[in-house]
Amino acid sequence: MSPLNDRADGAGHAAIAGADLSGTAGAVADLDRLILLGLSAHLHRHSRLGRSAAGLPAGPGQDPAHEADTIAGDLGAAPRHRWIAGHWLGALHEAGLVGRDAAGRFHDLHAPRRAELVTARTRMEAARLALGYPAELAELMLRSLRLLPSLLSDEVGVQALLYPDGEPATAEAVYRGNLISRYLNAAAAEVIRDLAGRSTRPLRILELGAGIGATTADLLPALAGRPVEFYLFTDLSPFFLDTARRRFDAGFLRYALLDIAHDLPRRPDELDLIVAATMAHNAPHVGRLLGRAAALLAPGGRVLLIETVREHPQSLTSMPFALSTHDGPPRRLDGRAGTTRTYLSREEWLSALEGGGLRVEVDLPRPADPLTALSQRLFVATR
Amino acid sequence: MKELAEIWSELLGLPPGEIPHDVGFLRLGGDSVLAVRMSALVRKRLGVALALSDVRVETTLDDLAELVRRHTSGGAPATRALPLTVTPRPDPHAEFPLLPLQQGYFVGQQDGWELSYDSAHYYLDYALTGVDGDEAADALADAVGRLATHQPTLRARVTPDGRQHVLPADAPGAVPQVRVYDLREAGPAEIATALRDVRQEMSTSGPDPTRGPGIDVRLTLLPGDEGRLHLGLSLLIFDGWSSSVLSRDLLAFVADWNAALPPLDIHFGDYVTSLADLPATEAWQADRDWWWSRLDTLPGPPALPLAADPQEVRPVTMGNREHRWRAESWAALRRQCTDRGVTPSTAMLTAFGVVLARWAGHRRMLLNSLQLNRLPIHPEVQRVVGAFAATMLLPLDLAAEATFAELAATVQATSGEHAAHNLITGVEVGREVARRRGSWRPVGPVVFQSVLGVDAAMGGGPPEEAGPLGRVVASDYFHQLRTPQVAIEVRCFELGPEMVAVFSLVEELFDTDQVTAAFAEFVALVDALADGSGWDRLPGLPEETEPGPASGLRLGLLPEPAVRHREGPPADDMEQAVADVFEELLEVPVLDRAADFFGLGGDSLLAVRAVVRLAKEAGVSVPVREFLSDSTVAGVAAVVRSRLGDQR
């Protein structure tokens, strides 16, 4: 990999110096385990998988294996959320907690014992500490399990999870301040510094789906004292633009509503940097998004992506609800089509970037780094 | 409504007066994130926990007001404006003082009073069916752990000098341990023995917060998916209302591994600490003046004939007589009471008074009533577990020629009037009475306690479904109470749709037949009230208002040994040492060996501290009871001297 890759990795690790990374993979597994067991417990209690797993005899004409959609009905899922039951059962099957027959029906759901659940809850608390997440993350996970009936029936929106009491602390907990976010944002800041250092003209920067500005907050200091023509902070929702306006204070910041499906600018060769932190996967066809983004870049311009490359069970009780469209699962037209996959794998991202005519310069964390267990990565590719 | 409009005003940036009551939150500029914040503010400011699905962007201010109304149950106590606020203390583990009744129980546990027990506690066990024997123990242990976080009082301790504090949740011993008896494979004989043994143990020795947790939780697993839950609660730490809150909270945690209860922003320590400002308020001073002006004319307790002198008796447990009224009778009684404009509690109290008057032979008497006494100085006070309860001395003056209905109306008025001056509690009044009379016999040894209507105030009875603990069979229960300084008390409570009244008494003090007769009369009287026939009758009452000359032992008329010491300066080093301890604790000069600790301004709690001090100084432990029986400098010195002599 490039020297830039090394420098960015160095900056990332400097930001988390002193952290003990030896237990990272185990901690990630503990966060996942809590949600998996919590989901098993929920399905056990609220769906017919509980009855068949309890060893009760199947009634006349009743098959002890069930289709995901039947389970969705048992759970009281609103039509647009029905797909989530299958998504969950797939994850539970992968974790060995439910059986699946040749016809794709599910059976023999694991019934978590109280002691198991208590242990999982305790280990989750230790894990979130080890990974640098504040208490709000633990509360988010437990609350999401409690609210499953209301989330499934659409009585309560996912904002109630991410903004309990209307405060941003929970959303911040997920995207900032924890080990992996600190590493990635510091590495990204180093890339920005490098770009600003070699640039011969004031920078033109576009951030897509900037949200609460978790990454923005770490990139802006890297631009201090550098010539920047504009930093265009964009998102789908005016709520985030307002928050950012009140929070950030740099003369070059501009704000605009931007929907990547319709509003990407069309004039090519005009941008030096496009930033997309944990949002690019929302595009129905990632390859096409990256291709259009690449076309907007001036020669030597860069795309900077922070992305999740594996859906961890720990987000199963929150992410899917945020992804449901008004009539069902998100529409995917790329390699994810036909599945309920949210994310691309690392290989798929590298391939999509190269397919867009870009050369990958940064791909972090390194393969042997314990931080890979968190499945969030920084990709930087140049035109 | 005003507070709700203010909340909306803050969220929407609109002047409160300009917010229309029938327009949805979204249309006024709100959004779903702000709607979640609205819920939080309603909880913080009004103490009302709305469900997340209750508050939507379409909700109007009128809708919200209706929701809040529905969530607020009818039991809101009468509000008197008290200029006190409760705020969380900076150090939740710092020591804080005991409330007066807690002090009474604490001193009682030091063998300080006649009719004391080494632990003042309440024991209860009840049946469970549909128990998942493999899961129940784990679920219960986890629930107790989570409850100990949610309700810090489970981690409370009392110090030897009579102050209290809460242990941090991770301190050793902080979380009470659950004991489990697995009798699922046992035969009937073994089960019967085991149950008897547990009841015996938990009835006679209760949890002692001066040495460990104030709660003892045990579970017996029985064959056939049955079980029993055993709870021992120290009265020093938990009052009656708390035991209901605790049951509810505990079963909620047992039922669901991920249950969350609306968090409590304040705890018992915060409440007690804020009461420190109470004596400076006009309201408190007015209540004190009101009580002090009445003390010299208070009647004595009912002069019930006694089989033994309370000072000679060392009771181990109290005896019980119990009666249950079926749902229809209880409903009938409630209707009759409503028609007559009296509360069911008042009716029961009046019936008790009538029976006591006949038994004691006079119509004017002093009763002691246990009150919930949670001052409404914070919206969350009703949900906090702690020892808020207080006693209230209640003089009854039953008219000779009045119908029961008339008597009840008078009792209701008297009771209401006394309860309105609740900033001074019965323990404080009792101390002043004792000080004035120079006597340490209990001032209110006959107690009335009623929690009728509490369930309605809490918004329904305790949950019946408890996850792996199955279903609670509330009607299959056993309980035992040990309250110090009580000769006889009546407790009235509801059990599901039925009503129960219990006489608890120190058996050694009374003639069994008299107790049985009194209880039967009481039950008959209440039956007559339920069927309507008792209200307009003249209950046969004795002619005398006051007790006549004592014949034999009678409650409240017991002889007090008069103690007189020669006045003068302390006669020797021992007396000087005692005088020094008195001076230090009372912060007044102590120059006379005949000076009495209480006359100098001490109270029973300071007496306990004096005893602790003397133990350090003189190396000998003076029983509190002996300190109280002669609390002059000379008297205490004499006791110390004789104990030292015994040691050699």
Structural notes for this entry:
- Chain A has 16 helices and nine strands.
- Chain A is an alpha/beta fold and 383 residues long.
- Chain A folds into two domains: 3-19 and 180-309 and 344-382, Rossmann fold; 24-131 and 133-175, no CATH class.
- In chain A, helix 2 (24-46) packs antiparallel against helix 6.
- In chain B, strand 13 (488-495) and strand 14 (498-505) form a beta hairpin.
- Mean pLDDT of chain B is 88; it is low at 74-79.
- In chain B, strands 8-14-13-11-9-10 form a six-stranded mixed beta sheet.
- Chain B has four domains: 2-71, Non-ribosomal Peptide Synthetase Peptidyl Carrier Protein, Chain A (Orthogonal Bundle); 96-268, Chloramphenicol Acetyltransferase (2-Layer Sandwich); 301-464 and 479-530, Nonribosomal peptide synthetase, condensation domain (Chloramphenicol Acetyltransferase, 2-Layer Sandwich), CATH 3.30.559; 573-647, ACP-like (Non-ribosomal Peptide Synthetase Peptidyl Carrier Protein, Chain A, Orthogonal Bundle), CATH 1.10.1200.10.
- Chain B has 648 residues and is of the alpha+beta class.
- Chain B is globular, with a radius of gyration of 27 Å.
- The A-B interface holds A 38, 41, 113-115, 117-118, 121, 142-143, 145-147, 150, 155-157, 159-160, 163-167, 239 and B 31-40, 52-53, 134-135, 138-139, 142, 257-260, 468.
Give a nutshell description of this structure.
The complex is a heterodimer of chains A (383) and B (648). Chain A is of the alpha/beta class and 383 residues long.
Give me the secondary-structure topology.
The complex is a heterodimer of chains A (383) and B (648).
Chain A (H helix, E strand, L loop, with lengths): L2 H13 L8 H23 L1 H6 L14 H7 L8 H12 L4 E2 L5 E2 L6 H17 L4 H12 L1 H5 L6 H4 L6 H7 L3 H20 L4 E6 L5 H6 L8 E8 L2 H10 L5 E5 L13 E7 L8 H11 E12 L10 H5 L22 H10 L3 E6 L11 E7 L1
Parallel strand pairs in A: 3-4, 3-6, 4-5, 6-7
Antiparallel strand pairs in A: 1-2, 7-9, 8-9
Helix pairs in contact in A: 1-11, 2-6, 4-5, 7-10
Chain B lengths: L1 H11 L19 H15 L14 H11 L24 E2 L2 H10 L11 E9 L6 H15 L5 E3 L4 E4 L11 E5 L5 H17 L10 E8 L3 E9 L5 H16 L12 H7 L7 H11 L26 E7 L1 H14 L3 H17 L3 E8 L18 E8 L6 H16 L6 H12 L8 E5 L3 H5 L12 E12 L5 E8 L2 E8 L6 H19 L42 H14 L17 H15 L5 H6 L3 H15 L1
Parallel strand pairs in B: 5-6, 9-11, 11-13
Antiparallel strand pairs in B: 1-4, 2-7, 2-12, 3-4, 6-7, 8-14, 9-10, 13-14
